[in-house]
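Service request form, structural biology core

Requester: graduate student, group of Dr. S.
Request type: structure prediction, single chain
Budget code: on file
Notes: please return the result as structure tokens.

Sequence provided:
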Amino acid sequence: MLEVKDIFVEVDGKEILKGVSLSIKECEIHALMGPNGSGKSSLSLAVMGHPKYKITKGEILLNGISIKDFPVNERAALGLFLGFQYPQEVEGVGISNFLRTSLLSQEKVVPEVVSFHKELKEKLQKIGLKEEFLKRGLNVGYSGGEKKRSEILQMSILKPKIAILDEPDSGTDIDGLKAVANGIVESSKEGAGILLITHYNKILSHVRPDFVHVLVDGKIMKSGGPELAEEIETHGYGTEVAV
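Core staff response, request fulfilled:
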């Protein structure tokens, strides 16, 4: 469903990604690991269409459609979702209105208000968030773990074809990690292809990926199964793993 073909990406004239290729199909979970500064977040932002991340070579296809030159909103309308490493606080916009507006902008069938709120409350309970979140600004005053749960909630409502999750385990406690992991697994079972960006193997003990990729210095140096994450946990990102 998502094909990243040999992309090179520059930021402010500096080359960050140096020929990255990746293919993610329906229901697959791919884990992307690598040291700080290797280009993991840059890949997520380039695929989503952040204007600062200039693709100088290569192609990005979503269901066979080239989206390399599409603006962010059009990529989202086609079913691409990004969970940010650092979710932004949005004063005055409640999560309920945000999600209904997002669904409408994607021309999806939106349930009537009562049915929508019932579904939203069920999802809130499942992800471990309280109903009071519906009365607050989006991410405003949330802890780091609550912001991550909120993004998983958004994914579960929007039901994207491809979800890129940038460190969804960051700032979560044990209960939060399990809630986030369960949400990822559920979205995958419902048909989403997942790219899960993480530093650590901990979340992968709850979300067993189909594939693990190691990104070092802007290149995918090695790919494998879930055992590769365990190898990294033991040996780190040394040359014995990343080549």
